Amino acid sequence: MRLQYPTNVKIVRVPCTGKVDVIHIMRAFEKGADGVAVIGCLEGECHFNAGNLMARRRVEQAQKVLETVGVGGERAQMYNLSSSEGPLFAQYATAMTEKIKALGPNPIRTAKNKAA
Amino acid sequence: MIVADKKPIEEIIEYLKDHKNILVLGCNECVTVCEAGGKKEVGVLASALRMYASKEGKEVKIDEMTLERQCDREYLDELRDSIDQYDAVVSLACGVGVQFTAEQYHDKPVYPGVNTCFMGATEERGLWTERCQGCGQCILATTGGICPVARCAKRLFNGPCGGSTTGRCEINTEVDCAWQLIVDRLKALDRLDEYEELCPLKDWSTDRAGGPRKVVREDVQQ
Ligand code: SF4
Ligand code: SF4
Question: Using DSSP, how many helices (H) and how many strands (E) does chain B show?
């Protein structure tokens, strides 16, 4: 399967989305990421039972904090797919990239560049 | 343990608006267990504050540290060498930790980063409930191990009141009637006859009503 997805997506592998904590999402934005998509297995199909459900809640928590500090909650998103769904991954990656492009760059990076 | 809840970040941002060098200080004990003020929460808050400052175009240094406890001088002393770099501290410890930190470092503003709620237990992750109000004269021996001070809305000692309905308290149908729990527990212990005994007037001088309290233990003093 040779699928195309936007080249500006950087993949960080984790053993299970349950490993992703709010702080990981926050740090990504602090370091200048424009968006963070957490892509987990389908709900109800986590090998560790609830990893993807916890991830969703953490993404929601991060969204709230990001909204409060003016980065924008929408920049963090949770998606679900099954591991055999490569085309869906490409679709999510494209959708996320488009969403973020519409939002523009991470305001923190813009502000830092301006200050420098 | 002491149960605390997170404070809205907006509130903390407001406290800190005039500060440039800030230490976000966590505590490894109760507030870590109730996920309000441990190392993880310190990380998230500090990161949020840094992002807010950058976005506002302000140059603010925000450091993170988590002490074993903030209610003990021994651990607070660990700040001695670094405290001068900061012009404010946000303490994510309970109200005791916030105050003790402020007492140790008299000329530093120390702001609370959590709302301290009560002494309680972890029912499940994300759910903490009150159990004790530190009344200073524990009567659990006569109430089947269930505290009417903390758990009865009226703090009745010879309950229940007339509002107890199908095991629920009249203040809220989601709250168990403490006295129903007491009766059920005494029954389970086969000590229901004790329920017939009137509980004498409680000496409230050991409670908050007697002003701030202290425990003095000469046997362990050095
Ligand atoms: S009787 Fe007093 S000390 Fe005992 S659990 Fe209740 S409030 Fe706490
Ligand atoms: S209903 Fe029960 S818990 Fe509520 S105030 Fe009356 S005795 Fe106390």
Answer: 8, 9
